[in-house]
Amino acid sequence: MNKKLWGGRFSERTARIAETFTASIDVDRRLYAHDIEGSIAHCKTLAKAGVITEQEADTLIQGLVRIKRDMDHGAFDLDESLEDIHMNIEARLIQDLGKVAQKLHTGRSRNDQVVLDVRMFVRRETVLVLEDLLHLRQTLLDLAKAHMDVVLPGYTHLQRAQPVLLAHHLMAYWEMFTRDFERFQEGLARTDVMPLGSAALAGTVYPLDRHYTASLLGFSKVASNSMDAISDRDFILEFLSDAAIAMVHLSRMSEELILWASSEFDFIEMPDAFATGSSIMPQKKNPDVPELVRGKTGIVFGNLVAMLTLMKGLPLAYNRDMQEDKGVLFQSMDVLRACLGVFIPMLAKVTFNSDAMARAVEAGFLNATDLADYLVAKGVPFRDAHRYVGEAVKYARSKGRELQELSLAELKGFSPAIDKDVYEILKPEAMINRRNSFGGTARRCVASALETARKRLEKDSRAVDALARRILKKAWAR
Known about the structure:
The chain has three domains: 14-106, Fumarase C, Chain B, domain 1 (Orthogonal Bundle), CATH 1.10.275.10; 119-204 and 221-359 and 450-477, Fumarase C, Chain A, domain 2 (Up-down Bundle), CATH 1.20.200; 368-426, Fumarase/aspartase (C-terminal domain) (Ribonucleotide Reductase Protein R1, domain 1, Orthogonal Bundle). It is 62% helix and 4% strand. The protein has 19 helices and six strands. It has helices spanning 16-22, 25-28, 32-48, 54-72, 85-97, 110-146, 166-191, 210-217, 226-231, 234-261, 288-311, 325-348, 354-362, 368-377, 382-399, 408-412, 422-425, 428-434, 443-471; strands at residues 151-156, 159-165, 193-194, 221-222, 268-269, 351-352. A hairpin with a 2-residue loop joins strand 1 and strand 2.
């Protein structure tokens, strides 16, 4: 009979097909470092409680460190029949150390062990995502600062609407990714909860100091309900939700880069290092990186729905369904990190065609709203002004001209309130600087926003550094 570490009450060997079906080692092997770190903290807690001796704890810890070293170097053969990474590590420890290793699992269950590992994994990855988002936001801020003199059309319904500063446009994405940063930061606080000591679901009979364990592992809180602790996967749902929203923002920006790189817009030149060519058309330069970012967004969306569906009908407490949480989590993490990793250096090397943007601003009646506002300032009711300008646009289109190209006599034909000072307010620079309400595209507003963003990034960078020092520090170094 195959000797399972849990097999005392069984008289029949597990069917090979069942072992293969229930095994998770192909997925959860990624958790090995966190599993070993959690076991080291558990050893110290057992020794502190007098459940094992200090000498036994030292022996176990040394054995665990040796196993981690072997796994780091690929010198560890994983056994699918042992189901998961936790049982593989424990079986190897028993093989290396004998009876003393059989004490390691005292006071804990695989239920609280696995959720500890996943929480530690999500904590670490969230810190790395926060660092990536800092770099992305800094890249956007640097680009905005470098292009304060560039004007382009702002769009609604993908139709030219009003002129804006390129810096203002870029900072709209800075705001999106700042909200993403905040979401991951807030989600991290809810992930940062130590579940070990909850055991199978009801807690443990051993006098384990769970707050001591939490301090060894750098957790800021300890789970206060053992049943919730081992069955809670909200932190995974939250990470997947945050990742999905971040991918929305990456996809939206990717779509604009794709459009702007086209001959129809010609607003940007994609860096050669982040583009590809055609196997048949020599002239082609394809924006494959943003296209793939846009495409991979659906993977993250799907994984969020899969996880929500997985959890929606589970009674308390642990159910084996939860084994499926790691595959969708790991895939979404990998996709998000990969997209951020390639997007940041690509974006930094994009070249903006300011001349093409300026030409686009001059065509398409982007100054129509300003003409209406001009009439309002002359005492014309807005609805009347709107109608007059609409008629002027229709007339100008019929003549193949823009509003600023109409003569004063032609403009006066739509409203006698129009005078020669109208031409000054129809210039793009004037249109931009007149939009000086808080959050507007006027130069002084954008300059203020850039300074506010700079200070915010400094603050966020300090916060992430503090999180990294606490969360990424290993238990055996505390």
